Amino acid sequence: MLNIRIEPISKKKEKPDQNNLGFGHYFTDHMFLMNYTEGKGWYDPRIVPYADISLPPAAMVFHYAQEMFEGLKAYRTADGTIQLFRPDKNIERMNNTNIRMCIPQVDPSDVLQAIKAVVNYDRDWVPSEEGTSLYIRPFIIATDEHLGVHVAKNYLFAIILSPVGSYYPTGINPVKIFIENEYVRAVKGGTGFAKVGGNYAASLIGQQKAEKLGYAQVLWLDGIQHKYIDEVGAMNVFFVIDGEIVTPSLAEGSILPGVTRDSCLALLRSWGMKVSERKISVDELEEAYKNGKLDEAFGTGTAAVISPIGELNNNGNKMIVSGGNIGPISHKLYDTLTGIQWGKIADPFGWTVKVD
Ligand SMILES: *Cc1c(COP(=O)(O)O)cnc(C)c1O
Known about the structure:
By secondary structure, the protein is an alpha+beta fold. 24% of the residues lie in helices and 29% in strands. It is built from seven helices and 18 strands. 42% of the residues are buried. Bound molecules: pyridoxal-5'-phosphate.
């Protein structure tokens, strides 16, 4: 149990227009902070006004990127209850990332308590318009004032909150995806399975290239043969090929084990559908496309939940999926997951957790 001290903001900020939130533009009145020092452990858990953090220019995170982050959401249901979606999975992943990044472990029940406490404290910031939610961003950074590559001895744990809009204000729009054959995001033995800024830093050049060509995101291939599919930008990826639902397996450690991915697998299996977690090559995709068997493709992630893919570009060869529309399986997954998250339908898996 954390003994969280509270320092309230002196004057609450004006709330943004709920119909124009976008993603990651606005931040709430407060944030959660907690420090760590080797030998002392985590200390001084506190809810304080959302404000700049002061760090020495030599703070290790700036130079060696020893940091991690998470992303989940709080949803306001019709009766005003505020609930989280599978926060235990994010917290478990947080500690798996921490191991890989040599960041100290956090106590799962303390983190859940901190998330609930800060969301509850700023609960008037959880929007109520259709499709809106409060994005929760926990992160940990190395704060030692020291140059030279070593594991840090001091860390700052923070949770910031951002009200976000509906991902699809004008209806679900399929995205165009560029298959990246030159740059890679992750390799076996690397940090692909960990949620860290460094993975994103390495991905920017591919993302920039894709955007210049008119594509929304990159589909990353395995880092060794550039042959097997890993994942899309900030989403895991699924394909429906001849009735089989396929997603790359986590075995290589090069893809992020998404909570949305895991939830889709559970739902699809509960519906009795044929689901495989396995290797899938671009060649197999192209072959399926040629034979008219590539029925659907979609990305999964907390931000968009399900993002249908309308086009895949492989070296200039364009594959148009589901006629550029959303396919039936993508649609059913989207309706079911968002239905559970906003408390509109039953939650048979016990995935939702109330904040108070
Ligand atoms: C966060 C993330 C995802 C999606 O994970 P969810 O838990 O479903 O939000 C997928 N890929 C990468 C690289 C990510 O960082």
